[in-house]
Recover the amino acids of this structure.
């Protein structure tokens, strides 16, 4: 059991290393372009599969929390009409560590054809997804946490951290104030603190 617990606690080191490496490879100019596009878009979509898809759901919620209308679009539903949500001038964010997720590539094509900006989040900046993206946000995963190096653990943490950084920057870029957040988030301990008189 001691060895099992030790290996489990290595998770913190593994993910911290990947976060640090991502901070090195994430191009600041591309990041700034993404922030500006997100801040100016009337609508924001986010799509991905698996763990990346769950991270994209988190991203859409983060955008809504600073009053940037956003929604997660299931890759399966996207090519069955759901891309009607995306219009010219909007943004679609697509995430795939390897950049080769088959379900995302037609989404990128359709959205670019409609005049939307495609932001790709991937470790492979030479991938099909990166090639189809207007803006590429690079990530770096040294390894996943499990002993087989195949569960999307570190990948999820790094992707989510990039999304957290984007929300932090968009909040500043748009001048979003906590008073607005208090109106849309009256629930829970945060809501009580924000709305305390």
């Amino acid at each position: 059991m001691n060895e099992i617990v030790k290996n489990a606690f290595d998770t913190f080191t593994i993910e911290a290393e990947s976060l640090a490496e991502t901070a090195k490879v994430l191009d600041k100019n591309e990041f700034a372009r993404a922030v500006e596009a997100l801040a100016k878009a009337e609508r924001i979509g986010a799509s991905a599969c698996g763990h990346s898809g769950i991270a994209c759901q988190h991203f859409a919620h983060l955008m809504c929390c600073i009053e940037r209308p956003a929604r997660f679009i299931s890759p399966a539903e996207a090519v069955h009409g759901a891309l009607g949500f995306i219009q010219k001038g909007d943004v679609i964010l697509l995430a795939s560590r390897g950049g080769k997720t088959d379900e995302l590539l037609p989404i990128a094509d359709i959205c670019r054809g409609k005049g939307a900006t495609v932001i790709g989040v991937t470790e492979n900046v030479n991938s099909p997804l990166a090639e189809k993206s207007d803006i590429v946000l690079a990530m770096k995963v040294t390894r996943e946490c499990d002993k087989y190096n195949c569960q999307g653990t570190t990948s999820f943490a790094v992707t989510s951290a990039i999304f957290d950084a984007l929300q932090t920057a968009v909040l500043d870029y748009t001048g979003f104030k906590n008073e607005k957040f208090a109106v849309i988030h009256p629930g829970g301990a945060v809501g009580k603190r924000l709305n305390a008189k």
